[in-house]
Amino acid sequence: ETFFNTPAVKLVHENGKVTGVIAKDENGKYIQFNASKGVILATGDYMNNEAMVKRWCPDVDGFDKKQYQKTGDGHIMAIDAGAKMENLGHTKMMHDFDSGLMYEEPFLYVNMEGKRFCNESGPYDYMLHSTVMQPGHTYCDIFDSDYVEQVKQMNEVGCCRLYPFDNGSPSNMSINLMPKMFFDPLLEKGYLQKADTPEELAQKLNIPVDNFVETFNRYNQMAENGKDEDYNKEPYRLMPLKTPPYYGIRTGAWFLATLDGVRIDTNMHPFREDGSEIEGLYMAGDCSGGFFSTSYPNLFTGLACGRTMVEGRRAGMLAATGQA
Description:
Blueprint: E1 8-14, E2 17-24, E3 30-34, E4 39-41, H1 50-56, H2 73-80, E5 92-95, E6 108-110, H3 124-132, E7 139-143, H4 147-154, H5 178-189, E8 192-195, H6 198-205, H7 209-225, E9 246-251, E10 254-258, E11 281-283, H8 303-321
Parallel strand pairs: 4-11
Antiparallel strand pairs: 1-2, 2-3, 5-10, 6-7, 7-9, 8-9
């Protein structure tokens, strides 16, 4: 039987073993669910619990958040049952393309002084560290009207993949959806700017015209020569911007998730300060810890999702069969 709108509030534990969970339905009634085989916590992260963020992941306190429903309930219940939380310096996932998937593509990035500041092809965490050090902790992504072919040549992976893979696997989203879903609404609201010349684009983005035009021309010249002399971007991703109208959008870091939590062993059991496991309790996904270290590396795709799927499957199998 499945219960919706019935959040868990407390684990039932006796003599060191978890035997059930107490939940609260939408009418305010408390229900105790007794668990003969085990309780699995797969409650996600704690990014919307301000006190937990300040305690365990203080470096992202104050950042804008992408999602608002994750409050660390599973962590709190497990700690109440005696579980040990991961050490300080929790891993967090930060993204910089939440205004639209295409704006993560490695086009030309300039800071608010109109100057290029990084290899745009770096992983998320590298990019965001570079961004935080820029004036206003933000930057502008610049591209032209040839973006359809350029995005295809860039051959991105992960969330911002906009073309099917060579083996036929679908992308996260089609590039054909970009105008209707992102360009038109953001142009109307004034977030995305469009101009026929680099000078006009710089004015609309409120960045120094002379600096930007110099940066723009140097970038195009290096792209024509096939060598990035400033930041060594891969030649196949270094393409000149020569097809007006030109586009620019300001973007920055958004807080997407925390990725650490309660320490677990290889049987998905959380364990106590003394190393003993908590029998009858399993944890999977972002409420568990011990997988990442400080930063989320997106050097290959599916890492966060794959971790959660494997842990969840293993927890389910072990709980159902009683093997561990």
